[in-house]
Specification:
This protein is an alpha/beta fold. It has a single domain (about 5-275), classed as LigB-like (Protocatechuate 4,5-dioxygenase, Chain B). It has helices at about 15-20, 30-35, 40-45, 100-110, 125-135, 160-175, 205-215, 220, 225-235, 240-250, and strands spanning about 5-10, 50-55, 70-75, 80, 95, 115-120, 145-150, 180-190, 255-265, 270-275. It starts with a strand and ends with a strand.
Length: about 280
């Protein structure tokens, strides 16, 4: 049967993708950030996922103001990179897993979580930057990937509790899929940052590290953080951290910490990264 073996949590700052694409990873500004992913790139070569269920948010590329699904699941065979205003990133197309995605959609919807089923979609930096950080610049991504966009752009985003419980439903769905698969679940976005208004550039390292601590010490408590606390303490875009809770909810009890990294700044964002393995 399919099993979730591990979870990867990672910020998806667009400037990181630009640094990779433009060959600037050895620049002094970027060296400390990419050093924090050296272990991760070696770890994933050994972990060898068959499928990655990747939770991210669209940045007005696949969706616009005319339709904004709270939760969506990519059920297509292939997802090309989106043009975010300066041409698509020169990264491989994402190869999906329609059979598993459709199975998850059916199971999760019957568990009373409403998903929007997407059969044609381009994917932006929210999905591709974490893949680049973990896999580098391959000719093709080394496994199949199911994109799972979550609305954290248009108010109201889903609550942390809703996301955490959705993760549990996703885990149940995956474990009912009758194929021997090593599945990883990735939660992306965050950490503290705000990109507009009087508080633009806000970063709160203390909030970020408390959040990382609680990922292991008291994960259920993170589901209780209200939206206003994210915004007040860590900036408007810190609400992206509810997407980490989808992946956290999908993990088993007492996962093992494999790697932890936090770096400030990357552009105007605090970068957080965590790898957990089920015991």
């Amino acid at each position: 049967m399919a099993k979730i073996s591990s979870a990867v949590f990672c910020s998806h700052v667009p400037a990181i993708g630009a640094a990779i694409d433009l060959g600037k990873t050895a620049d002094p500004y970027w060296v400390p950030l990419f050093k924090g992913f050296e272990f991760s790139k070696q770890w994933i070569k050994q972990a060898k996922p068959d499928v990655i269920f990747l939770v991210y948010n669209d940045h007005a590329t696949a969706f616009d103001a005319s339709i904004i699904p709270t939760f969506a699941i990519g059920c297509a065979e292939r997802f090309p990179p989106a043009d975010e205003g300066w041409g698509p990133r020169k990264v491989p197309d994402v190869i999906g897993y329609p059979e598993l995605a459709a199975h998850i959609a059916q199971s999760v919807i019957l568990d009373e979580f409403d998903l929007t089923i997407i059969n044609d979609m381009k994917v932006d930096h929210g999905l591709s930057v974490p893949l680049s950080l973990m896999f580098g610049q391959p000719e093709a991504w080394p496994c199949r990937i199911i994109p799972f966009p979550v609305n954290v752009v248009q108010y109201p985003p889903p609550t942390g509790n809703r996301c955490y419980n959705l993760g549990k439903a996703i885990r149940s769905a995956i474990e009912k899929f009758d194929e021997d698969l090593n599945v990883q679940i990735w939660g992306t976005g965050g950490m503290s940052h705000q990109i507009q208004g009087p508080r633009a550039g806000l970063i709160n390292k203390e909030f970020d590290n408390r959040f990382l601590d609680r990922m292991l010490s008291d994960p259920a408590s993170l589901a209780k953080i209200p939206h206003i606390e994210y915004v007040r303490e860590a900036g408007a875009e810190a609400i992206e951290l509810v997407m980490w809770l989808v992946a956290l909810g999908a993990m088993g009890p007492n996962p093992r910490l494999v790697h932890r990294f936090h770096h400030v700044p990357a552009s105007n964002t605090a970068v957080g990264h965590l790898i957990l393995e089920n015991q």
